Amino acid sequence: MRPWPGIALLLLTLVGCGDETSPGEPAGFAGLGEAADDFAQASADIELRFPEDHAAHPDYRIEWWYLTANLEDERGEPLGLQWTLFRQALTPPDRRPEPSPWAADQLWMAHMAVSRGDTHRVAERFARSHSADENGQAGAVAEPFRAWIDHWQLASRIETSDESRNEDTFAELSLSARQDDEHGGFGYDLTLTAEGPLVLHGEAGFSQKSADGQGSISSGSMYYSQPFWRIEGDVTLDGETRAVSGHGWLDREWSSQLLGAEQRGWDWFSLHLESGQKLMAFQLRGGGEDGGDYRSGTWIAPDGEPTALAPDELVMTPLETQQVVGREVPLRWHLKIPGVGLELIVEAPHAERWMTTSVPYWEGEVIARNADGEPLGVGYLEMTGY
Amino acid sequence: MLTALATLLSHYRRHPGQLAMLLLGLWVAGALWSGVQAINASARDSYARAEALFTTGLDRLERRDGEPLTRADFLRLRRAGLPVSPLLEGALEAPDGSELRVIGIDPLTLPGDSAFADASSSSQGELTAFLTPPWQTRVAPDTLPTLSVNAREATGAEPRLDEGRLPPLVLTPALPPGTLVMDIAAAAALLDSEERLSRLVTAPGELERAPAGLVLTPADTLVSPGQLTESFHLNLTAMALLALVVGLFIVQAALGLALEQRLGMLRTLRALGLSGRALVGLLALELLLLGLAGAVAGIVSGVWLARVLLPDVAATLGSLYGAEVAVTLNLPWHYWFGGLGVTLGGLLLAGSGVLWRASKLSVLGLGQAQAWRAGFVRQLRGMALAGGAVTAAGLVLWAWLVRQPPGEGLLAGFGLIAALLLASALLLSPLLALALAGLGQLVRRRPLAQWAMADLQLQLPRLALAMMALLIALSANLGVSSMVGGFRLTFLDWLDQRLVADYYLRPPPERFDAVQAWLSERPEVAELLPTRHADATLLEIEGTDGARTPHLPVGLYGITPGESLMPSWPLLATQAGRDDAWQAFAAGEAAFVNEQLAIDQDLAPGDRVTLSAPGGRETLAVAAVYPDYGNTRGEVLLATPQLAERFAAAPSSIGIVLAEGADEAALRDALRQRALGSDTLVDQREVKRLSIEIFERTFTITRALSVLTLGVAALALLASLLAQARERRRQLAPLWALGVPRARLVAIQLAQLGGMSLAVGALAVPLGSVLALGLVAIINVAAFGWRLPLHVFTGDIVLTLATATAVALLAALLPAARLWRTPPRALLAEESDT
Lengths: 386, 834
Prior knowledge:
- The complex is a heterodimer of chains A (386) and B (834).
- Chain A has one helix at 7-15; strands spanning 62-73, 78-89, 106-116, 119-129, 138-141, 146-149, 152-156, 172-179, 186-194, 199-200, 206-208, 220-237, 240-257, 265-273, 278-287, 293-300, 306-309, 315-324, 327-337, 342-347, 354-355, 361-369, 375-383.
- In chain A, the strands form two sheets. In chain A, strands 1, 2, 3, 4, 5, 6, 7, 8, 9, 10, 11, 12 and 13 form a 13-stranded antiparallel beta sheet that branches. In chain A, strands 14, 15, 16, 17, 18, 19, 20, 21, 22 and 23 form a ten-stranded antiparallel beta sheet that branches.
- The longest helix of chain A has 9 residues, at 7-15.
- Chain A is globular and about 60 Å long.
- Chain A is mostly beta strands and 386 residues long.
- Chain A starts with 6 loop residues before the first helix and ends with a strand.
- Chain A has one helix and 23 strands.
- In chain A, a hairpin with a 2-residue loop joins strand 6 and strand 7.
- Chain A has one domain (7-383): AttH-like fold (Beta Barrel).
- Chain B has 834 residues and is of the alpha+beta class.
- Helix content of chain B is 59%, strand content 15%.
- In chain B, strands 8-5-9-4-3-11-1-12 form an eight-stranded mixed beta sheet, covered by helices on one side. A six-stranded mixed barrel of chain B has the order 14-16-21-18-20-19, surrounded by four helices. A two-stranded antiparallel ribbon of chain B has the order 2-10.
- In chain B, a hairpin with a 2-residue loop joins strand 14 and strand 15.
- In chain B, helix 9 (276-321) packs antiparallel against helix 19, helix 11 (370-403) packs across helix 12 and helix 13 runs antiparallel to helix 19 (684-737).
- The A-B interface holds A 7-8, 10-11, 13-17, 31, 90-91, 95, 97, 100-105, 107, 126-128, 135-137, 150-151, 178 and B 71, 74-75, 78-81, 86, 104, 106-109, 112-113, 116-117, 120-122, 124-128, 131-133, 183-185, 188-189, 194-195.
């Protein structure tokens, strides 16, 4: 899961009032726990439909297209990257402005990061659009799939024509993004090929986010992933371009009520295990039974068959914290799923993965090992609210 | 101590006139000074706000062909990865008829470190409110009166304009006056601009070159209003300083008199055991009390004065420099302390002589006024010496200025003028004393005349200061009016020479060529003068003394060298005569540069300049220098076709020279049918009228201040005469007793003063002319970048002399009338008092 801020963080950039969000805000991290009665609500009754659901859902408050990748260059050196497009509705559906050249009801934000060794480069972009306009500065359309902001773009490589009408344009994507900076620029040009099916989390795509999710306003999201990307292409870092290949994980999530008001942040894992299995696991700090943390996850078989993990089927324990830009961040974890006999030590080899974006968070590559220290897989860890 | 202070102050109870004069001097000096400073402070505040706005400080992109950019261009460039942000700018008419500037922005793409941070509020949810209906209008509180909105009900108000209702107001003091900032969607709706944009902006230096078809104007070529108007404010400050000095002359005169009349009292106090130090302390305290009263009154009236003058100043700055200045005062806290400090500091300076004399007071000294007069000879010597020293300093300054490149040394120029005025003032008394002594010798066979001379010599110590003030005020008045008058003549000539076409048409850029072709077929038209304009950077100058690389932004202007323009267009300097210059110009081989650029960059005909151009660099020979009054930038003039071809310049306007006996109405009708009505067609007469109006307004303040200064000087003279009137009568009484009729006595008095003032006026004439020369040759060149011929106006000189005499006679009239009415017996009675 990849909750994302919106207004709160945009505003922080624009008014330049620093990069701190107090973790104890009453409305949850970055205001994501705010009430949103006027928006469409995620629920277990909704059936996901593809390719339509690859596109934006402007009736929901927030949404994202979130890609992380664990890659290696030709010499086997590891390299990580992230590309995320966030959408935030500016108005509930019934209060949208009439379409006009600049009128907007949607805000877009995108993050990109490339990391290798101790180097971590980050960029951020913003845009507006009207939900009635599919050719704005940013957007996401289903057929053929395309999600973009300015020249950053995740798009299908399949041209739709009459002959290819039945093809899944989401299965073959290309990702390109580039940012100039004082180090010579960074970016990537990649091809993504899906080697497995889409995976629906929770109850057929409805992912509950707190223990009292059955209350009057559900806190939860529509959530599916494509964890089976094979990625190839070029990555540029500090002006130097390398050929790379590896695994990628794309998360799609939309919601109007993501967090409970008392939830402060989350820790989220996506792991590609060498056995071919995959694991998604998260915990929301606060909002669980008796005020504890709320945990959830999906155990994914090599053929893509998901097993939803209930809060009590998952143990997540931070083992060790490190100072990152003045904050104590847990970079070594103990993960245990007794139901499938899995026990992992997940560790971030590099601590310097702080996203210096308008709302800051930690996001970086991790290595999963067994109790003896033998590597079992790689993945990504995201931690917010620290 | 208190008793001693009360005793000292009791003097003013007996002589309320002196107190009034003291306070008047302080009040007038303080009022003029703080008034002008209030104007300056207010204007600077407006500039600071304008400069902090995102439209300045950002590089701009516009279309090369002058047509507006659209949202499609914005999207295309963003897709290509260029960090551009759309900006929509337009004008709306306020309910009171004044113009409001509407700026529509997209905060999401606007470069982050621009001042939107200030323009936007910091509370959460504000961004959504800014971006979504009903949107917000960010506006500075001093724009509210223009919108006819009450400050208390401002937030959330939605004032109605012709174009529609404004989004709810949100007060943002950091914005410049007259500016409404809102989301681009709201601005587009108000301005009905649909997909059109005014320009794209980007962070400075972000783009190395403009995308195809666009022109990139770096932020540093957009001169900020603060820089442009600096010289204007320096001018104002200098005038205010002059007024302050003249006012302090009154103060010094009054203080001197008050001390002299209290010498006896001071001695008594000393004899009663008050220490010298305590006495000086008490006098200083007295000064402070008076100073506070005067300064506070001065500042209050100064603010009032500024309120009255500010709309004129704002209009001037707006039309001259395009700088928006609030018409309501906006004073920072330090202004109040600054005004108080300067007035009190000046008072202390004026009173330092009095304090020094009081500290030297001998307890046993003679208790009479003669004590001071005896010192006057010594004082004259001191004044002559000081005058000599200031003259020498002025000469050094002048020698330094001569070595400076032209256009440099604005402050030194003012320094030189100040030195000139001060030296003349200091030397005035020794000169007058010498002249009186000489004249006394000449008329020694005519006892009454000789008495009059001797008597004037005796009066000189007290009149000296008033005369000095008069000299300074008269010279300044003459100098300023010569400069303004001369400028006016030159400017009007220049307008006639430059505006040769009868009409100026500004068609939309996309129709420019078609309209020009159509017009050239019309029978009414004798000649068409199309113009174009572009911006460039002056990269290199090759002169006789080597090459330089100034890297200076300049304007490029294209004119049509035809039969109408060539004979009249003024040229200041050419390489090989007018005809050759025009020939080279028309052939596209050479360019002309304006005087500002020539002075600033030390350019002369024959030099070669290299300019940045879309196709790389273009090198041109400079064939001539032309005057360009009113322009704030350096400009290079080219023939229109060459400018269009080599610099891809955007079309500007078409000058229409009418044929003999042309049917103007028919042409106007035809233009109107082609939708080229009054908003694109300007009558030459209208341009002239507007230009002259701007000119007149520019110098309204200068004139007003110089007249006010003269008024202050007249007051100084009146005050001095009134102060000594009583004492004078004692000296006249013996003459009356000797049989001189009262009418004669009065006439002598008037002649004495009138003669002396006339002499001062006569001295002011050469001094004023030198002052005018300094203004024209140094100050104007440094401040505006152009040199004017010096004009001497006989009318002004006569007026100066007449003013001097009239001021003196007016000032003398009141004491004289009193003398006329006083019975002789009273005079004698006064004499016996001594």
